[in-house]
Design a protein that fits this description.
Elements (H helix, E strand, L loop, with lengths): L5 E3 L2 E6 L4 E5 L10 H7 L4 E5 L13 H14 L5 E6 L1 H12 L4 E7 L19 H10 L9 H11 L2 H16 L13 E6 L7 H10 L3 E6 L6 H4 L1 H16 L2
Helix pairs in contact: 1-9, 2-3, 4-5
InterPro entries: AB_hydrolase_1, AB_hydrolase_fold, AB_hydrolase_sf
Protein name: Pimeloyl-ACP methyl ester carboxylesterase
Organism: Pedobacter terrae
């Protein structure tokens, strides 16, 4: 990642560009670099901000999607931001949903890609063979349609993370919180425009999940990315960016 991480007043984030603000929310195992192609595409016309969600820093007894939503609220107030476009992948989408239900006045529109909040089939409740590099490699490859997207660098990062006892406990705590916090009854409250950009071959949050989101979110559109798994902005960045561009043009430039 070529952008420096800014650290101030307890917040860590990346920022580039000027204009209407896009806030990108990473997933549970997500790296900031997952969004690199999105930043490159939009930084010349938009202000793009990626806060680092404090999954490894918040007190473990309070760790959960609601705690991350509260953190996002503090961050947006600190940056004096409102009417932002929230763009979230996986857990990041879930945090965006929880935040939008509580603080819709801060959000102009929402983009979800492979979002949890209804159902997910991720690592499960444990990492039974986390010491095995091949096992972790297989699990990371499961995230994508094309296993080659799971680069050695990406697998190395995940392997290192899940073999850090403190971190793996937090990951499992966070994953259980996400599974428990089902959003089905709350989605009708979200009346702002929502774009669902979904991998047609997502095995973590399968296509049926996207269809249910589309059905339950009253002002939503559903866009499919073919031959794509759980992270379209990584696996097919050009297609993801094209859908995002069209959506932003519709909601921001009318």
């Amino acid at each position: 990642m070529t952008y420096p991480i800014i650290e101030e007043d307890g917040f860590k984030y990346i920022e580039a560009g000027t204009g209407e603000t896009l806030v990108l929310l990473h997933g549970l195992m997500g790296e900031l670099s997952n969004w690199e192609q999105v930043i490159e595409q939009f930084k010349d016309r938009y202000r793009v901000i990626i806060p680092i969600l404090p999954i490894y820093d918040l007190p473990i007894l309070t760790l959960g999607v609601k705690a991350l939503s509260r953190y996002l609220h503090r961050f947006l107030k600190y940056k004096n931001l409102n009417q932002v476009v929230l763009i979230g992948n996986s857990l990041g989408g879930h945090v965006g949903l929880v935040f939008t239900v509580a603080h819709q006045e801060f959000v102009k529109a929402l983009v979800l890609t492979g979002s949890s909040g209804l159902y997910e089939n991720a690592f499960g409740g444990s990492f039974p063979r986390r010491e095995s590099y091949d096992y972790i490699k297989e699990k990371v490859e499961f995230t994508f349609y094309d296993p080659a997207t799971a680069t050695k660098e990406l697998v190395d990062d995940v392997f290192k993370t899940v073999n850090d006892r403190s971190r793996v406990i937090r990951i499992l705590t966070m994953a259980k919180s996400a599974i428990r916090h089902n959003m089905a009854k709350d989605l009708s409250k979200i009346t702002i425009p929502v774009s669902l950009i979904w991998g047609k071959n997502d095995k973590v949050t399968p296509p049926e999940v996207a269809k249910e989101f589309h059905q339950l979110l009253p002002n939503s559109e559903l866009n499919w990315v073919d031959k794509c798994g759980h992270a379209p902005m990584m696996e097919h960045p050009e297609t993801f960016n094209a859908f995002l561009e069209k959506f932003l043009d519709r909601i921001l430039l009318k």
